[in-house]
Each structure stands twice: as structure tokens, then as C-alpha cells.
User: Fold these one by one.
Assistant:
Number 1:
Amino acid sequence: MSGILEAEPGDTVLLMGNEAIVRGALEARLSVATTYPGTPASEIGDTLAKVAEKAGIYFEYSTNEKVATEVAIGAAASGLRAMVSMKHVGVNVASDPLMTFAYTGTRGGFVLVTADDPSCHSSQNEQDNRFYALFGGFPLFEPASPQECYDMIKKAFDVSEELGQPVILRTTTRVAHVRGPVTVGEISIGPKKKEFVKEPARFVTVPAVARARHLVLLEQLSKAERMADESEFNTIIRIGDGGRQGIVTSSAPANYTIDAAKDMGLHVDILKLGFSNPVPSRKMLDFLRTHDKVVIVEELEPVLETQVRSLAQREGLGTKVLGKMDGYMPRAYEYDQAIVTHGLARAFSKDLNEAGKCEPPHDLPTRPPVLCAGCPHSATYYAVNKATNKKALFATDIGCYTLGVAPPYSTADLLVCMGSSVGTAGGLAKVNDLPVIAFIGDSTFFHSGIPGLVNAVHQGHKFLVMILDNRTTAMTGHQPHPGSARDPCNPGAISVSIEEVVKGCGVKWLKVVDPYDTSAMIEAVKDALTQDSVSVVIARRECALIAKRDEKGAILKKHYIDQEACKKCRTCVTKFQCPAISSIDKLQTIDEVLCAGCGVCAQVCPYKAIKEAP
Amino acid sequence: MVDVYLVGVGGQGIITASKIIGDAALLAGEKVILSETHGMAQRGGSVVCTARIGDRAGPLIPDKAADVILSLELLETLRAECKASKVTVVLSSTERIVPLSVSTQKMRYPSQQEVVDKMSSVARSVTMVDAAGLAGQAGARMSSNIVMVGVLAGSGATGLGRDRFEEAVKANIRRNVDENLRAFALGFDQGKRAKA
């Protein structure tokens, strides 16, 4: 109920996991925080953006996750505490600086928060970022609840500073986006300045330094393992009378495991790991020695399972280990209580009550997310299909505009990651005869589209890049980006011109077009596709959710369908898509409230039956 | 322990509704855990939230395990069928937000009677409320979500007192507080009809 800053020490407030991370960090002498927005991590940055100035910390929305990490490294290497947050795939972008930062280590506490997304609720994959902890050698915390988010971020800063190593805190959607009671302590902000003491033999990773530092990293990791063995976050929870049956679990699955074991009436010991890398091997071996059968319950990859099996083999233990390698637990998608119950029942040979199963109704009208009424992307896609007659290949990118994959537009043929549209379009154009168009949003262009454009110019690739510039990072909640005129966290922020960047990359043909003017857009696309080199169209129109409206709520003017003029051709729903336009029982209508007043549908109607409302 | 399964459409204020339930529980000294799915769902898609009051670790509600289904949209009520059992109290707004698939794929939007019949066959009770109408009556046209929180409070299904809910509404709603409290009160009276 209270804001993040207002809650007093000892208060118990309802916080989202992401908010609890921010409150915890603000109590842990945080000085600098950075991010690039991405679900399910976005609220960390958004909360920081609201409180940073008042709290007295430095916060920025960086251009991408790599830059965000580097800015935080600069502060942490100087000796201040720094936090960088991102979604799981953001860590791929940030992995280059991270892998070597583990070698130099840090002076001030450094915590990377990665929010994983099992089941791909809003992501292009469900990679398991616990592997980064093993890959790079990072101590790893895995909270399972908002209270643990708060407790563990504080601990993570202490561990990082004590070891002089960067630490990872990993959440998942069902931790980051869960709200629960959190009892808070006292806010304690770190200093604003700290002079960097030069130490090139540590911080300049030429080969000789890197070789020496690798041994330091390994030494620190063995210290970290001893800390994990003693950590209060690695505990045994006894269900029923406990006994010789055990479960090892971490993160969100720990919650489902506790509920399932209770509801099933099991007598079992649960070893719940919160400080899970390095694996606390002494504690784990004790657990394996005192239990005959141990089931590993973890979402996604068998990260714990591999290590538990390896420990058991190393020590020659006869403990039976069950998990996903032998098919007891699934390796894809997020878990829930039913999935865990099913796995535990098989592993512990309990009868399974299938009465709880239910097939969801499949004959209901679907309700997928759609582009909003007045969305400029919708207008752009309509125009592109008109200009190309749908005879083109579309490399797309990550943002609201990815929704163009659905009919009626079908303007998405290839997508792998942030910024990939421009690079993949080059390859498509090289080996295909169809015209190729890359769609990329303004924030995504700054994030990682620019190197692809430089490459296309240099290599002489021939395709069209359409920068869908809605003046914001819309999908994740309207965060600013380098092209934004205003940055709430930085009143003096300089807006970087997309046109100047495009020209600076060496692009010879560039047009800026308002998507609401469909004939201009159609002409621009046709013209662009006749060019002999890479061409760029900037489709510029503010996101309809933040655009200025008149007193009737319209961006330009609300419209209606003149039923006498309407020829029932359904072009307005088969070639165009707008949540305000419906076609039910042969009657096409525009919902007056939903209509954003963009006027695009009036240009789409071949019979001029869509008119400005009086 | 009371499990409330909330459904609706992106933009209807379902997350705010769940936060009010969470705060009401916290004010009453109960344990509570809420979940939500963000991201793509914001763009007019189906949205699901959960509120689990009591000693539960996991935020998700298993099939056939909801004590209450609180729905802000008629079609979404039907989509929640799997969470219902013979103990479930269904509290649904009669509001319809017609999805594009009805227009483009020529699918049929079910009638209110069909929704009532189907949900009555799997749940303990079904209560339909004209939440949009009551919100308008309260002078808070956008507050169907608050009306439905009132319905939940009035039904008594959560065991939480009216004053806790009202305090939670005040804590979560910054603008037009009086109108929203009126919307809550109108919903509360409707909720008394529910067989909880």
C-alpha cells in the first residue's frame, strides 16, 4: 500500500517480486542502477525510475543490456554498489562484458538481476539462465517469493563485496510478477562518488592479466561454495514426519513442491536452495547420505540434477536420484502444482488422483493480443501489403509490431532476437529474388539495429529497412530510449536523431513518412523497393496509447460507418485490423468509445463509407 | 484458505482488482499471494490474475480448485471453466468485449444464458452482475472492476470484512475515490445475492 520509499522499518507491505528487489537494493547501500526494459524484469527499472531522484541514487534506462552492464561495471569497479536488471535473453546481449568481469572481479557489490520466463509468456525462448552462473562463475541466488527477493538481493550485495565477485540473482515470471507480503527494514543509500583507484594488473584484461585472474576467480568460487554451505537460504523443510525420502528444489518450483507434498500427505524432507551456485556440496552430500531416494524438482534444464548426480557418483553414494533425465519431471515450460504432483506421485509410487484434470474449452472465440485502435504499426502494415501485394519477405523484430505476424497482415517471416531484422534481411536479400523488408522499432533500432545497417551499407545489401518510430519503448510500458525527447530520469537527456544516425551509417535513400497517410506510405514503400542499395523509411507517429487527444478522445477525428454507403465488402476487417471495428452478422460498425480517431480506416474503405463523425 | 481466480481483458483493471483483494487480506492479518501475467497480454488479450488467501506457497491455482471465479467479462467467464468445481462461486460481469476473432474468423460470441448454463453445470453458484451499468450509476464509468470487487466482498466468499475492502480500495485508487466507493457499495449489495 505504501510506496517503495514510504514503507517504514518493520512495516509489512504487499510488493511485487520486482518491487521487493528495488526496496531491498535501496536498503543495501545501492548507488547506481541500470537496465534495458524487458518482461518480466521491467518493473525493476520502472520502480527505480520513479524513486531514484528522491532516494538519491543514479538510475538510467541504457541503450541495451550490454551497455547497461558496462555502466554498472564502471561504477562497481570504482567501489560503489551497482545493480543491472534485464530479462533472460538480455543476458545474452550482456554476456560479453559479464564473462570477463568475473575475471577482474568487483570492488563495490555488483548484482545482475535476470528475470527468466519459463513457458515464454512474453519471450522468444525459455532459456535457463542458471547456466550463466555456471558458465561464467557467478554466485547465484534464486528467490522463490517477494520476501525472498527482498532478503536475497541484500545478501547478494554483501556476498559480492565480500568475495569481490559479481553475483547473479535470478527470478522467473512466477517470482518477479508475484505479489506478496514483504516486511521491510531501513533504507540505506550508498555514496554518489568514489574515486577509481588504478590497478591495471587486475582491471585491464590483457592475456597475462586474464590468465592470472582466472585462478583468482576459481579460488573465490571455492570460498563462495563454503558460503553457500552455511547460507540460511539453503534449508531443509520437513513435510509430515520427513523420513528417508527427499526432494531438492529451488526458485518457483519450491513453492509448488511444498504445496503438493502437503496436499499429497507425503512424509518427505525438502532441501530448498536459495544460494544455489556454487552448489553447497557439503550440505547436499549430507542430504544424499541421509535419504534413500531424492527427487530433483527444477524448471527447465537439469542444472541441479546434473550436479547432484555428479556428486553422488563422485562420492560413490547409492542414493537413488530421480529427475528429468529419467523422465519423472518435464524439461519444458513452467511448472505448477499439478505437474509437480504428477512427478512426485510417480517418483514416490503414490496413487495419482486424476479427478483434478480438466480439458479447457477449445471452441470459444480466441482473444490473442492485438495492435491497439489507432496503432500506427497497423497503418504501416496495411500500406506495406498494398505496396507489395504481399509478395515480399519480412524480417521482423521485437516489440508490439511483432503482432504483425497474425492475419490480416502476416508481415513477419523471420525473427530470432532484438535487432535481428536488419542483419537477417541482409542474408535473405542475398539469396532470394523477392523484395525484402526489415521492420524494426525505434528503441530496438538503437538497441542493436545499427551494426546491421552499417553492415548492409558496407556490403551493398539491397533491402528496405522500415524503422517503426512510435517515439517510445511501447511493449514493455513506454520507457524512454535514446531518441526520446524527454527522459523522466534525466531531464538534460539529449535526443539522438534517427535520421542523422541512418545518414551517418551511409544510407543514401531515406524518407520519413506519417503512417496515418496511407497513400504516402504506399508510394514511399514502392519507391524504396526500386533502389539499388539499402533504403530506409522511418514510419513516424507517436504510439496511440500516449498520443495527445482532443476533447472527444480522438488523435485526429473519430469516424463512423455510413451503413447506407457500406457495400459489406469487409475490407475494413480482412485487409485492416482495428479493435474498434467489428463485423458481426454482416453488420460492420465502429465502437465510438474505442475509436482512437486516426482516420486510417476511412482511407482503407474502397467505397468511402467510413466518414468523420460529426 | 480462499483461492480467487480473476479473469478479464487487458485494460479492464484486473490487476488493480487483485491488488485490492491482496491489501484487504493483508489488512485483516491474513497471508496472501497474488500472480499476474504481463507483456503481450496488455494489448487487449485475455488476462488472468490469482489471489490466494491463506497458507499457500505457490501463486497458481490448480484446475477445479478455485473457491471464487471473479470475472470482468462474459466470454472470459466461460474460458475459466476448468478452474471451477462444485464448491466454486462464480461472480461475473455481464459486460461483453467482442474479440476480433468474432469478426475475422466469424466465430460466435456466446449468449449470457449459455454462459450461465455452462458455469452452473460445473460450479456451485453463478451470479451475473451488470457491472458496467452500476459503475455508470456510481459516476465512475471505468470502474466495473471496483464494482466486481464489491460483489466479491458482498458475497462473503473471502471471509474478509467490508471495511477491509473499503480501506484497500482507498489505498489503491487515487482519483474519484468517492465515486469508486459508491461503485464498490453498489457491487456489495449485488454480491449479497450470491450463494457463497
Number 2:
Amino acid sequence: MVVKAQSRPAEVLRPGHAGCPGCGHAMGMRMVLRALGNRAVVVVVPSCVAVISGPYPYAALNVPMFHSAFEIAAPTAAGISQALKIQGKDDIPVLAFAGDGGTFDIGLQSLSGAADRNEDFIYVCMDNEAYMNTGIQVSSATPRYAWTGTSPMGNTRRKKHIMEIMAAHRIPYAATACIGFADDLTAKVKKAKEMRGTRFLHLLSPCPTGWKMEQHLSPKAAVAAVETNIFPLYEIFGGSEYVINYRSKGLPVETYLSLQGRYRHLRPEDVKSIQAETDRNWEELKRRV
Amino acid sequence: MSLPDWLNPEKIIPISRGSTTVFKTGTWSGNRPEHREKTSPCRAACPAGNNIPDALFAASQGNFDDALSAFLEESPLPGVCGSVCYHPCETYCNRDKWDGSVHIRTLERAAADYGNAIPIPLANSGERYPVAVVGSGPAGLSAAYHLARMGHPVSVIEARDEAGGLLRFAIPLYRLPQGVFQKDLKRILSLGISINTGEKVGTKKLEEIRAKSSAVFIASGAQRSIKAEIPGLDLEGVLPGLDFLQKVRRSVLTELPGKVVVIGGGNVAVDAARSARRLGADKVEVVCLEQRGDMPAHEREWSDALEEGILFHYGWGPKRFLGKRSRASRVEFAGCTSVFDSKGRFSPSYEEDESLMLDADWVILAIGQVPDISPYRASPLAERGFVQTDPITLATTWEGVFSGGDFVTGPRSVVEAIAAGKRAALSIHCYTLGKPFSEAEERTLLGDGPGFSIHSFFHPREGWDPKSVVRFEDIESLCLDQEARRSLGRLSPVERTTGFHEVDIPLDLREAVQQAGRCFFCGTCTGCDRCFLYCPEVSLLPPDENCSFYRADDAFCKGCAVCAAVCPRGVMTMGEVK
């Protein structure tokens, strides 16, 4: 069939970046940025996002981007946002990208401070569930049982519930999204863009390298995470009003786990325990709605 | 104004002004995606090779004109097929392995009902050769239609007083409403085809036609009812199946009081029984040699007949007809122990001790139909007692004479007749130009064949691999929604038997759009943009003025195969750097 030309939003991410082939982060960044538009300021901190955004003196983003220190994505964004307001440019959104390490671990304190003051920026946590660009070390976003370089027998701790932490700050908007559901992700970025105050997006973006998958599996793994309820898609308004965006197929967790080499060592009882915890979390989430 | 160094942002913080596009990451991998459209299993299964994915995509967008246009690429009779086809497409539909096949047949009918389209001409060579077609049934009309689209002047010769063959005179109205066929026929005739009705053709006449035409296609169907050597056959009230159906369609028979016994297990027998029921028969019984489940009639027809209160007796063969005052009153049957002999030939054997006696005011004998080749006595056609053709080219042993459809194969389905007509059309086209047909066929064969695409022979579709058929495993099931196949509206058995109203209720417009939307459009790019959107390298280029399909930017593509993985229709395929 001859496909007719259609109008598409401008691309903000440029080719030639250094992401691994099939990188989920690159897909996520691309989707977030094209939803945000090319009139914006972006902050990045050390993470795979920083790798993708380009080595000096080259940039992979088509918008002004500030490369800040690991632990201060949120206050950097807050500062830029304040400065733009002083200059009278309060229509320019500021968006911070940080990895799960920069959010769950290293940047948590400063993120909490900025959220507490309800500073005006969008914070996108690009979660690939470990410190991937330094060579796959465990973070507090790494799920239980997952292999990383520093949890060779499988992670013993459970994934930190970052959405609850953000909800506890009573920020106007917090949402989960993943690269497997592009429309949902786009809608959430656009919705966040129209709001003011601290807006938080927890974006699951599978990592073929660190999750030990084939290169083409990132979108599929992301869909599987949602369809198994391991990573439900939902929004929290004002820290208390929960909305579930997608009614999953409720597939068994094996659908998700079996795609990934980092779970290859699981025993049947481990899978059972992941299933039980997933079910518990899903019931808990539904109770909150 | 120049700033001092300690205030100059360029000096305090390094600023990247270059673009990462200087890094040609395309060298990272030798793998590259290719936009390669494939054939959907429904299309490969359709004898007529209908372009179902394109048609259903247009329908899903509410564009029934384009949907009809897509069906008209391969078949002149979408309304007819949409009503009566035995739809092998739905059997092979990939969605059948998920949550029930798409209602393809009914959607073809919806396209014919709601759409209007002019058949796309097949680019012709500029050379025009007059072709004659004998018979205006589905095979004849199909051949005439495609030949006319190629620009050849076509004249059709029909023995009856109206065109259509069994579509006009045999298939009961409750399966094929007259208006539906007429709309198809009108469209075919709009191509400038002349139909001479009431003209019978035999050896001598054919010689005349041959002299005036470059080629002749004979598609006279299989219309001679087989008459078994059964005592009492000449009793009044004993009717051959096809004659009976024809009398009903011509309104010669408008009521049928009394008890009716139909003999035969094929579709004509079931059509006759159901027609008899509608003509007000008190009791209709079908008696066949075969056991239940082995009947040649389509299962749906059989179960419909059961619903309508028709009784079936399985495993009986007629022994004799008994009459009162030269009128049939009873039929005696013998138990049939097997229908075929050890070599698979039709040769029923009976258990003479077992017998069944049925009262009958009317006996309809529908034990099969055969082509009538008697008009062609003393011609090369009749040399072997049946018409022999080359299965690929449909050429007979008589130079310039082609033949196909039921006239060659014996009774088959409407869609197979349409397929034969299409094959004959392209074969005749190649014959008149002196080109080998096998090459033309080979280029456009759908899957393993025998269906082929006549449209894409004349209008090649760039980037389409017709032989490659999309399997269910090629579709990422994780991304599929559940929307079970809905059962369609039908008249209740009571409503049906009060007249010849169409049994299947056609889809309304809204439902048709919805049902078409269930199609996976296997192997056909619909421009959904997923491959483009998911490319982490921003290096998949969407269609534009210069190129009508998605392709990788060689400079940056890292060959990760995400585009192929997210394609919901199996179009993007991994290959190597060219």
C-alpha cells in the first residue's frame, strides 16, 4: 500500500548518539522530547541519558540542554525554571532527565527538596533498573532477584517504591509510563506540560545490555511489564487521587521474566514469590484508586 | 560588547555546539531493516487472490469506495462472493488463532453494498485482440472482465435469455439477492463488454467465432444433471435438481404442496431442499449415500437446513420410484455401505436387505451435475469425452480455444470459477502477445499458489514479496487486543422459511467499520508509524515524496531490529546492508 505522508511533530533527538543498539532510553527520550516540543530546556545528569545526549562538543538534543551533577537534577531544573521566569520566559518548560540511580539513590534528597517546594519543572526518571552506563551495578530501583554485576546471585532487596515517595510530597502530578505504550507516554508528557509545579514521570525503559536481552526486545519487555502488572500504568494527582490508565491482560509474570537473561537463574519458588508480590502490589494499587 | 573571561559563559562552562550527526553509527552493524510487504494468509487462501488487507484497511477507515476498488483488482463479483463464498480466507485468517477470524466474506459484501468504484484498467500493451467468451457464469464474466480491463474487445455469448449462469438461474435468492448480483453485473458491463444472449454454441458456431477472434474461452459450466438408471425416473413429479432450482428462480414453480424427497448430499441437494421448504412443502427430506459428516455439502448449509426443519437420512441410495397413475408417490432406498471403492472411485455398494420407503409427492434428484460437451461433438474438445486443458494455461487441445471453470472441473464453487476466468484472461493475454504465461504467473503467485494477482502483474507493487505469507508467529501477540469474533445477525428459521429473504443480515455501516478494524492487515503496511516512532536512532525514514515506504537511514541505523519487532503486520524484515 502506498502510505500517504502525514504530519509529525518535530524530532528533538538527533541520530548519531552513543546509545547501545535497541536502547530503551533512547526510545523513551525520543518520545518524551517530541511530545515536549522544541521550545524547552532540558537538564541531564550522569546516566545513560548523559551518554546519549552526546560527548563534548557534540549534542544529540535539538534544544538547550544543561549537563549537571549526578545528585542535583531536580534543583538544577528548578533553578533554570526560576531564572527563566525572572527573564519573563515562563512559557518555556524545563525538563530534567535522570536515571534510576540519580533518582532513587543519589538524587533523592535534592529531588525531595525541590518537590517539597513544588518547584516548577518536569522530572523524568528514566528507569532501567540499575547503574547501566557504569557497567550494570545494583541500584535501589533494581527488582528483587535480578542479576547485576554487584548482585551476582540476584538482588536481595525489593525495588524502592518511588511513586509512593513522590506521592507523599503531594506534588500536582506523578505518573508511570513506559516505552511500550507510546500513546500513553505522549499523552502524559503533554498533560504534564500543561500543568505547573513539580511533575514527576516514572518511565520504565528496558535495557537490552543490562537486562541481558536481544537488542530488539526493549519495547516488548516494556509491554510485558505492563501486561503482567509488574509495572502498571497509572497517575497520581495531588499525591492522593489515583487513576489507573490501562487495564492489563494480567499475564503471568513469566511472560516478562523469561524475556530477560538477568532472571535466568530464578527457581520456580522465586517466580512464585515475584508473582505473589506483583499481585499484592496490584491489589494495593487498585485499593488506592 | 565583549565580556571578561570570568563572565563569559563560553569560558566558564564548555558548550557543545556540534551535532552528534557527525558520528555515522551506521557502521556499527551490517544488519538493516527492509520494508518488505508480504501476502496475508487469507489472500493466499482465496482462489481469486483478493486483495483483502488493502480492502479491509480502507473499510476500517470508513472508505468503502476504496475497499470495493481493492476487491475489484482481482474479482468482478465482490457482491456475489460476499454473499455466497465458502470463505477459505476466514479459515486461514491469522486472527483465527487469536480470538476468532475476521468476517472477511461479510465485509466483502459490505464493500459491494456501500462502495462505488470503477475497476482500475490494467495497463495494456496497446495491442487489442478480440476475444470471445462462451458462457456468462462467474468464470465467463471473470474472464471477460479482466480481458476488458486489459483493453481487449470482448464479446460474451450466453445460451439463456439473461446473463449470469448459475448466479442468475440456480443459486437461491435467500443466499444471493438479485440486486446484489445485478449491481456487480452492471459494473462489469460498464467496461464495454457485449453480451449476446439466447445464442447456443456448438462445434460449427465455435469455428465461426474462432475465425473472428484471436482466442475463445469456453466456460459453459456443469449444468447437465446426472440421471441415474433408476426405475420410475420418468414419473411425473421427479425433477432434476438444477432444473428444479431454475424453475424456482424463474418463478415457474411458486408453490410445492405435499411431501418432498431430495436425493443427494451436495450443495444443490441442500439448496433444493431449502427452496422446497420455502415453497410451502409439508415435509422435506434429504436422502444421501454418505454418512453424516461426509456429505459434500458445506456444513453451514447443512446446519441451516436442519434448523429449518429439513430431515436428513444418511447412508441410503435410491432403488426405485413408485407411482400412482404415472405420478410419483413413494421412493424406495437401499442401505449404502460404502460410497467409494478401494481406489477412491465413486462406486456405491448396497446392502440390499435394508430398505427405506418414503412417501413423496415430489422427488428432486440432485445426485450431481456434469458439463455438457455434446454440442462440441466432432471437435478436438470432445476427443476424450471430457474437456482436457493445461492446468496452468487453461489451453485446450484446440488451438486458440481455452476453457475453465465447472465446464472443465465439474461442479466447484463460485470463487474457483472466478479464479479460472482470471487465469484464462491473463493466459489469453499472454497467448495473443506470444509471451509465455508461466513467467507471468510465476511473478505474481500468491504464497504457494495457485492464486495469483493479475492486478500486480500490470501494476507491480514495489517492495512486495507475494510468495512470502505472514504466519501468526510473525505477529507480536503481546501487542494485540482482545476483541472476540462476533456472531452475525441472521433471520430465525421461522422468518427464513416464510419466503426467499436473505438469511444472513448484511452488516450496517458502523458495524462494518468496526469489524474491518479487527483485521491485522498481515503483511500490508498501513502507515501506522510504529517502526518510525520506536527507532531509538531516529534513523528510520518515513514515506515522503521520493519514496513510498519506510526505510533505514544507512548512515545511522545500528541494525537493532526494533522496527521489525514492533511492526504489527510482519512488514519490516531484517536483512543486510546493501
Number 3:
Amino acid sequence: MSLPIFWFCVIALLWLGYLFLEGFDFGVGMLLPVLGRDNTERRVMVNTIGPVWDGNEVWLLVAGGATFAAFPGWYAALFSAAYLPLTLFLVALIGRGVAFEYRGKVDTERWRRNWDRVIVAGSWIASLGIGLVLSTTVLGLPLNEHGDRVGSPLAVIRWETLLGALAVAGYALVHGAVFLTLKTEGEISDRARRLALRIAPVALLPLVGLLLLVQLREGAGWTWVSVAVVLVAAVGALLRLAKGREGQAFALLGVAVVGTVVTLFGALYPNVLPSTLDPANSLTVAATASSSYTLTVMTWVAAFGTPAVLVYQGWTYWVFRKRIGTRHIPAVHVPK
Amino acid sequence: MHVLDVARWQFGITTVYHFLMVPLTIGLSLLVAGMQTAWVRTSDPRYLKMTKFWGKLLLINFAMGVVTGIVQEFQFGMAWSSYSRFVGDVFGAPLAMEGLVAFFVESTFLGLWIFGWDRLSKRAHLACAWAFSLATMASAYFILAANSWMQHPVGIVFTDGRPRLTSIWAVLGNNTVLAAFPHTIAGAFAVAATFLVGISAWHLWRKHRESAADDPDRKVWHSSLRLGTWVGVVAFAAVAISGDFQGKLMFEQQPMKMAAAEALCHSEKPAGFSVFAYGDVARPDCENVKSLTLPALLSFLAHNNFSSEVKGVQDLVPEYQAKYGANYPVDERLGELSGKPIDYVPTLPVTYWGFRLMIGFGAIAAGVGVLALWLTRRGRVPRTKWFGRLALLSIATPFLANSFGWIFTEMGRQPFVVVPNPSGVDGVWMYTAQAVSAGVTVGEVLTSLIALTLLYGGLAVVEVFLIRRYVRAGIAGVMPPVPPEGDSDDGPDDGSGSGGGSAKSDDVLAFAY
């Protein structure tokens, strides 16, 4: 396998990590007012992701940085073309990140309610935004021969990319509910399970729709397999969840993300960002890749860095493996 | 209004803002890790209180640094896509390394540290503090290596119109970053030290005025103050020494920047250092400028002797024109600059005053630190009214010095975004005007500029509000009072869990959002 192809796979892997991990913390944020009926319950929810959400987000930063390093042309074209959606996405990420840290720092109802709104809106907007950007890179943009967007700032907003936005948001919603089933106890856990089972058939539809769309338009023969894997894993996840096996359900949703990423990136290859104007303007893995020296350097860094990340992030999840319930939540103690 | 101007304002605002949080995070992280180490080694509750109090302020600030950092990584691609394409082969690598090596460690171990008080052994928990604080330093190194490459490109060949990386070690070992890193880190410790000194001096002064003896946390503030002053002494000395070193390097690598720092119009031999100028510094011919000057000092700052020549702006311009061209290339994407003459002189008032304000605020901060050291010798606390206020106000000075330093160095390299290396590979430079995204409209960049500026402004208010609240509350704000009957626990060092002090028996979490 050539280095550019290897790095294309690494970037797919980083997206996989991001969607799987931040997917559930987006979901928890989106469901905050739905599943958390009072402040203590909402604190339970926030604390299931408290120690890990920031580490989850870094997967996206590294995906961005790795794209810059390995495929500068891809990074430049995609980020500048999706300027407005990315701006909104950044505002949402900033808001929710600060909100997690600040929501408990003043003990008034109003303070918490405002930050809760930021968390909910931020999680929705961010998951929709990242779905839009991901589906844009797969489905393409009107690009000229320099790799710059032609047309209006809203060229990235089409029904196909809106479907992509809903696909990620819907997935995050279900993934978050299953995560909460797994990580909380008592009433909240039951509520999360019932909610996941109720919404999943609708919430996962956009994802299925996106995959079929991509597969029919750009897919290869073998990517039918990964589409099938997503369908089987999603159905399996719901069946296991109904049986009270939320751990297995959560893992199966992970398998569904694997299938999703394989389908999307499999269909995308050998492009990294197709041009909808003229296939000759499409950005490809080969043409946008950095020099082989740069890719070699990055390969060494990734070879040592990635296993270490998996080990210590895995350790974090192990340290905070216990379920949390309302009885674990300490009294509020903040300056008066 | 042009995309270029709006994008530059956005980069300036977001970067200066981000760098208000960053130095405090870097300096304070390591100092908090040090405090916690002292607690783990001595079991003295004073150090636990210090860890908790300064750790809380650190977290309030850390969150802001993290979220504003995301914008930094994204806007290269969003607003500066031509730049990203040009330099990606080299510049992307340190950025990706920063993510893979530093951000992952930082975010993961910070989470473990915040929530791990009762889940980890004392030593493992302490190790987490060191892990994330050292990661902040690593992060600084990678991003400074990237910035230094823009200031002084090395480790490359020039093929097909783009620089290609040939040696990552040359990029990571660039003498520009070897100078910039100590200067920046020393600046970060200067910020953290002044923060410690200002707040603990204020606490001592306030309690002292109310009642001299009965402040149970007096030792906490006193230790924090001493720590701050001594760290400050070392940090300010290091800032000055590394700054001098960096300055000499800049005279070699970017003579125009340093001439602009002085608003030195004509070459002088020996050259004097202008302390203060009045009149119109903006004119590169220096008509109408009167300046208070220390003779021959600039020659020393540039070349370590009091006699050599320092080149002025007017003599450098023809040299730059001869080497890098007198006009911009003809390219429709340059807009109205296409084919026009290149102005090689940075905005002189910004560089001249930026340089002086950097040094000036740094010197004030250092002076206040020395004053605090003297006034609080052997456990004294001044009673004068102005002391508390002055202590708090002084906190702003190293922040300002840092900001002006960056504004100076980034404005001083204009019109280049990638400055040509005088002894490097030919052809590797880029004008800022060429760097901006070609496909992006003014409306888009203006939207993000307004959105981010408003958001950042709002968040600044919130952060200052929270920091103020926690500062005023002191130790009581971060550690719940020990229940009156609570001597069932084993001794004073058992603060370990102490977030949930009141109910140790059941499974209540030591810390929760």
C-alpha cells in the first residue's frame, strides 16, 4: 500500500474515532432536557461524559491536522468551501465546551438553565454541522481547477448534504441514549433505554438514506458489504438493547460507525473531494498528497502516537467505568 | 473592504485572544503540578489548599484556551487556503504532531485529573497533573516550531513552486524556535507568577486589614506569594535573556522587522536605541520624528558590540526589492494588488510601539514583582490602601507584554506571511496578500469575524466574572468546610477526596460537574 493510500485510511480511522466517541457525547448533550428531569439528573448525564468529552473532541482536531499535513489541498479546499457551516460548527463547539466546565460554577437556576441551553444547541448544531461537512467531502462541491469553490457560500448546502447532517445528528441521538443506558443507573437508565428504542427507527433512517445514496452514486461493488454491515449492526444493536444488553448494543453501534466510515471513504476513493463541475477538477488522494518524506515522518509519529492514545484513552474509560446515578452526585459547593 | 483585511483582523483578534489564555494555562499548570507534588510529598494541607484553589482558577481558564484553540487550527484552511496549499507539506506536520502528541495527552489527563481525585491513587493522580502540564509545553513547542518556520523557513527544497520538507529535524531544531520557545515559556511563567503574586498579595492584604491573626489560610497565601515572586524573578530574567538572544537572531534573519521595531529610517553606525519617540513614526523617512535615544545600545542589541552598523528601513527597502522583486506578480487572485509595487515596510507605529510596550509592560510587571518581594519580606504584609489594588492591577501587565510581543513580531514580518530566509532556499516566501482563501467571499469572513468577536467578548466577561468570584471566595470556595464532628477521618492529610467531604461513607463522587 502506498503512503498516500495509507494516510487516506488513517484519516478515515480518525473520523471513525471521532464519530464513535464524540457521537455519544453529542447525543448526551442533545438529550439533556429530554432525559434529565431535574438538575441532579442533568448533572448525572453531564458527568457521564465529563472526564472524556474533551479527549473525544481531539479526534477531530487530529483528523483536521492530519489532513493538513498529509493532504494540504484537501484541507484547504474543504475548509474554505464549507466556510459558513464550519463557522457555525466552531461557535457551537466553543459554546458547549465552555458550558460543560462553567454550568456548575454558580449555584442559581438561571445560570444552569442558560448553560444547559448552550449545551443542547451546541450539541445539535455541532453534530449537524459535522455531518454536513463529512457528506460534502464525499458527495463533492463545485470546484474550479485551483480547487476553490465556485458559486455561493451556501453551495455546500444541498438536500444531499442536509441528509448527511441529519444522518450524523440522528446517529448521535441514538448513540447518546444507548451510552446513557450503559453509564447511568436506575430511572435515568430505563428512560434512556425506552427512548433509544422508540426513536431509533426514525433517527437512524437518514444514516441509512445517506449510505444508500452514496453507494448508488459512487459506491464500488464491495462497499455493499459495509452498507449491509451497518444495517445488520444497527438492527442488532436495537435487539440487544431491548434484551437489556446495553453494552453489546453500544458495541454494535460502534460496528455501525465502522461500516459507515468504510462505505463513505470507500466510495470517495480515489478522490478526496470530487468536483461536481468537472471530474478533471476533482481532488484526488494521489494529487493532493504531501511528499513521501512528510508522509514517512508522519507515519513514524502515528506509529508511536496512536497506540499510546488508544491505551491511555482506554484507561480513562476504565477508570470511570462505573455507572452513575443521582445518589453519587455531591451537593453543590461553589462560592456564594 | 477586502477578504484580505477582514481575514487578517480575524486572525489577529482570535490569536491575541487565544494567547491571553495560553500563557496562564501553561505557567499555572506546571505550578499547580508542583504544588500537588509538594502536598503528596509532605502531606501538608496547605499545599492541598493551594492545589485546589489555583487548580480551580486554572480549570476556568483552561477551558477557554482549549475551545479558542480549535478555531486556530481550522482557520488556516478556512480563511488562508492558498497559504495552506503552499506550505502544507511542511507546516501541517508540526500541527498534526501537536494534536497527536500534545492535545490527546492534555485533554485526556486533564479529564483524569479533574474527576480522578478519589478514583486514582495519590501518585497516579499526581502523574496526571504532570502529564497534562508537560503536554501544554509540548504543544507550545510544536506550534512555535510551525510559527518559526514561517519566520525562517528551513529543512526544505523548492519543487514545482512549493516548499517540500526534507528534514523534520531542521524544522524542529530551527534556531528561530530554539530562541522563541524559551522566550515564550518564560513569558508564560511570568504571567502565572504575577497571577499568583497579585491574588495572594490581595488576599493577605485584605485579611490583614480586617483581622491580623485569625486567617486560617494565611499560610496558603503566603506560600503562594513566595512561590510567585521567586518564579517571577527567574521568569523575568529568562524573558530578558532569551529576548536579547532572539532579538540578535532577528537582526540576522529579518533585518526589516528589527529596523521597524526601532523605526530606524537610516542606517546608523553605531546605532542608538530609541526609548521614546514623538512625532509621526509612521513615515519611513523619519521626517518630523524626535526621539529620546540611548547611544550605541541598538548596536549592542543587534550585534553584541557598541560600534557596528545597524541598517535602517530606507536602506533595506532597495535590498528587499532587488532580492524579492519590486512588484507583486500579476495574478487576478491578488485583486487590486496584482502587479502593484510591494510595500516592504511594516506598519511602523505598530512595530515601534508594540516593541516598546512589550518591553515596558514586562519591565513594570518585573518591577512590581520585586516590590512585592521586598514589601512582604519575612512575613510582612503592607497595610497601605493602594497595595491590594496595585497587586490586582499588576496581573494585567505580563498579559499585555505578551500580546504586544506577538503583535510586534507578526506585524513586523509583513508584507510576508512566510518570510524569506536570507541564507535559505531561494523562492520560498509568500506574501500575506497571496495567502488568503481565493474562493471565500468578504461576507463569509465578515460573518465569522463578527460572530467570533462577539462570542469571545461575551466569554471574556464570563471568565473574568467566574475568576473574580472564585478569587474572592478564597479557599472556602473550593473546599467544603470540614464537618464539625468530622474527626473520624485519619488526620489532616486526608483532604484527598475532599470535594465531597461531608459524606465520605457512601459512594458520593469526590468531584462532579
